[in-house]
Fold this protein.
Amino acid sequence: MSAPRNLTDEQLRGENSAQAAGDDRPLRGTVGHARLITALAVGALAWTVPFMASIIVLLPARLDQLDAAHKVTDFATVTVVGSVVALVANIVFGALSDRTRSRFGARSPWIVAGAVGLGLSLVALGAAPTFTVLLLVWCVLQLFLNMFLAPVTAIMADRVAPSRRGVAAGLAGTATIIGQAAAAATGAAFIGHPSAGFFALAALPVVGGVAVVLTAPDTSNLDVPRAALTAKTFLETFTFPRKAADFYWALSGRFLLVIGYFLIMNYQLFILTDYMHLSDAAAARVVMLAGLVTVVVGIVAGLATGPLSDRIGRRKLPVIASTVLIGAGALIPFLAADSWAMLAFAGVGGFAMGMYGAVDQALVVEVLPNKATAAKDLGILNMANTGGQIVAPAIAAAVIAGAGGYRSLFLVCVIACVLAAACILPIKSAR
């Protein structure tokens, strides 16, 4: 393979078209694709395991300990407020990362700082004695999580060649699936002692963040010009891009999918105990088994779909197919209020999320309007993740309180997924 290049932010703007002919070199830096992709996978594990274990099991379990009578509304409050913080933090830290100049590159300082802060926040979360303190700490955790996540996500846009982004997204997506399964197993193991679970997970993001920058160190960007922070550049740095229809279609599609998926995943424990009437111990077993099913089928789907997407040169078709499949999987527990139905959803939904994770990140990188503001724009796209998690609990709380109860969550998921798939169709800048 030819030697990697060091390109300025300005030069990166035209790279997608230049590499369409098959140039397979990393866009910049001194390490090749194997180490870049490994770093992306490690980064995915570093945040997915502690965050998903918290949101799926540990946080609901701790709220149940603090105030069982109000656990549903308390959970909605924590997730909504925390997601608002995450929404702003992802954009701000992405923009700051884009403008950072250091001997370690633009991203590395923020990755390490965010990882350390995330680990310390988990310790504080485990020690939180009241709901109010827990809410405040969760907001701080979201701040550091997105300080870490925004620059890690930008590695693909910065340094991975377009012809390798399907493989990179596939392996990073597979790592995310493995992380979700590990999170479910870890959370289930600490379901009776959630504070201990937070303590046990605290070292993971710190170790993972350091591993990312050591595995794929960036080169100095001190010599890369940086535009003066005028009123015009401020708007470019911190505001939404203009005349970028494909960008917003991708944002809308991801937003709707996140709403649908997290309507079920965030309320998985309550669905099993309150809708399917399992004991805590039985629910924990189902969560662990569902996590295992998800990781197996997700790995198969992710490892197959990413390289296939690179080979056929298509991103939209796998994203649409996987989105529709998630909705189809949600029909199973809608029709059957039994634990086996949740396991079936884990199989179908896990396979679909493996497909989706393998290609969606490559798709959104290809619709970025300006590579020089990649981290900020990816932060805006990540609003779909945080914004979806803001909206999902509000919808879930209203649906659960209504006549349909928990059962209606699955039907709302189906509708959201169908709409999400429809949003991908108009995209023109990616096939």
Q: What stands out?
A: Confidence is low (pLDDT under 50) at residues 1-5, 7-22. Residues 27-221+228-424 form a domain with the Growth Hormone; Chain: A; fold (CATH 1.20.1250.20).
